[in-house]
Amino acid sequence: MKQERSAQDNRELERVRQLILEAKENAYRETDMEPEPELTHSVDWPVTCTVGPGLEGAIAAETKIGYVNGTKGSLIYRGYDIFDLCAQSSFEETSYLLLHGYLPNESELEKFTNVLRRKMFIPRTQRLLLSFPIEEMVPMSALRLGTNLMRQKQTFRDKDTLLEETKDSIASDEDSIAMETRPTGEKASVYEFIKHIYDRPETASPDLISSEEIESCYNLLGGVTSVAASIGRIRDGHLPLEPLPDLSLAGNYLYMLTGRRPTPLEERIMDISLILHADHGMNASTFAAMVVASTLSDIYFAVGSGIAALSGPLHGGANVQVVQMLEEIGDASSVSQWYSKATEEKRKVPGFGHRVYKAYDPRARILGPLAGMLAESNSSIQPMYETAKKLESEVVASLGASKKIFPNVDYYSGIVYKSMGIAEHLYTTIFAVSRVSGWCARVIEYLEHNRIFRPRAIYTGTLKEEYVPVDQRDTNG
Ligand SMILES: CC(C)(COP(=O)(O)OP(=O)(O)OC[C@H]1O[C@@H](n2cnc3c(N)ncnc32)[C@H](O)[C@@H]1OP(=O)(O)O)[C@@H](O)C(=O)NCCC(=O)NCCS
Fold first, then answer.
1. pLDDT tens digits for 295-351?
2. H/E/C letters for each residue in 434-466?
3. Residue 438 contacts residue 411 (beta carbons within 8 Å)
């Protein structure tokens, strides 16, 4: 049942919007003088460019999906500024925009939202997850496992195993619950699941689910969200929950993770966090997903590769280091001493600097004030937020002008998640939930003019070694 919002809720949501619009104004004012974007026109292939190690600088594709202007500190999805999307859009609408190329009308958005909500209903995959030692697995590894389980059930390549979703509900066979879990018998757990509105619906209009690829993307968008939330619950010794029909994808993520209905403010801030992690140029995980898809493998494997790439500490995860650093500093009065020592030891401060942004990351401009707003009503988070603000001013004062070092997206996202009670080990899985929409959009776009990725390496080894049989090789190594 849809819950009514109170006047207080509405005031808080309006304040969120205002904070984002203020952040936009600051960004535009501060970067007004920076040059306009480059690399925004079609190229004639083959293209000439300077390439560094790790393909740095290489142009591998054209895209209409998203654009990062690092010197201006701007991020655009399909022509729309991230500030405008965060102030006015929802993760569902933004995902539609990324996948389909335009903002949906009211009825398209409603259908899409319903489809995603239904796609979040994955009792069989949750059931299968319970048979693995999820609590012993790294959450990103468990998330990747979840995409494989979903693939097994849903991919059209394995048609024999494709079942009508309404028949997928599982029985109350508590005997077969894996021993590793400690079922606590929550009311709406998948074991006692109450069927809400999830019959294969008329709402899934053929125009929305018109092809195998796009349906698989919807499966992944909804399914990965539920898998991510279930991982958190199973690790805490609880049973996975089914989604609630009146919550957004962000709200359901929080509900299915914590077992508590999020407040409208929490739901909205998680929604915004998902919007601003949804796409970010040809980063490593996006490229990994595209490389796998370019072999004409399938989207589940492609997304699984994105998750694998994102799991590395050089890509996802700096927000955990930020939270740990702020805990280490303790409180705002210790910042100066801590930072002097860090500078002396030439330590890089987590949450600052970015390979592409040489200006304030627009995502940090948005998350910063929202973290502050959440901290206002959470006394255990307030000192951490104040410490972060103080450290930001010190780092920017010493490195902003000279080295273009500013906070990046990870600086405040950890504080936001922590204030919602989310465990640190789950932070990167939230990033993945959101990035599924960018991975899928980019894969679909690339496949329209697919060419298998095949860069080259310079061979620097020897060329004419003589093969020596094993029994004649030097035994001294
Ligand atoms: C993200 C990152 C890898 C970008 O690296 P990069 O673009 O290659 O930048 P460089 O490492 O070449 O750094 C350029 C200069 O800024 C300094 N610098 C970069 N990030 C810094 C940080 N976080 N703290 C302090 N100094 C930093 C470097 O020491 C270097 O100084 P130098 O010219 O005197 O040697 C780097 O900023 C970093 O490690 N940040 C911390 C981790 C983090 O937050 N990662 C998440 C990114 S979303």
1. 988 899 999 999 999 999 888 889 999 999 999 999 999 999 999 999 999 999 999
2. HHHHHHHHHHHHHHHCCCCCCCCCCCCCCCCCC
3. no
The percent of residues above 90 in pLDDT, for the chain, comes to 76
In the annotation, is 280 catalytic? no
> Phi-psi region for residue 444, left (φ > 0), alpha (ψ -120 to 50) or beta?
alpha
Domains and CATH numbers, the chain: 105-262 (1.10.580.10)
CA 418, CA 326: separation in Å to the nearest integer? 12
- Between the two ends of the chain, the Cα-to-Cα distance in Å is 73
Answer yes or no: are the C-beta atoms of 299 and 213 closer than 8 Å: yes
Q: What is the DSSP-derived secondary structure letter of residue 195?
A: P
Predicted local confidence at residue 165, as pLDDT: 44
- The per-residue pLDDT for 38 is 67
Nearest residue (by CA) to ligand 1, atom 16, is 403
Rounded to whole angstroms, how far apart are CA atoms 75 and 56?
A: 19
What is the value of pTM for the model shown?
Answer: 0.89
What is the DSSP code string of 110-132?
Answer: HHHHHHHHHHT--HHHHHHHTTS
Q: Supply the mean pLDDT for the chain.
A: 88
Whether 176 shows a pLDDT value over 70: the answer reads no
Q: What is the pLDDT of residue 104?
A: 97
**Ligand 1 neighbours (beta carbon < 6 A):** 318, 348-355, 399, 403, 405, 408-410
196 catalytic, yes or no? no
Q: Which listed residue (271, 279, 298, 410) is catalytic?
A: 410
The answer to whether 228 and 435 have CB atoms below 8 angstroms apart is no
Task: Please give the distance of CA 291 from its chain centroid, rounded to a whole number.
Answer: 19
Q: Which two tokens stand for residue 150?
A: 């979903």
Beta bridge partners of 66: 77
Check if 354 is active-site: yes
CA distance 399 to 396: 5
**Could you tell me which residue, 351 or 169, shows the higher pLDDT?**
351
Structure tokens of 345? 């030891």
Instruction: Tell me how crowded residue 117 is: count the other CB atoms within 10 A of its CB.
Output: 25
Contact 290, 446 (CB under 8 A): yes
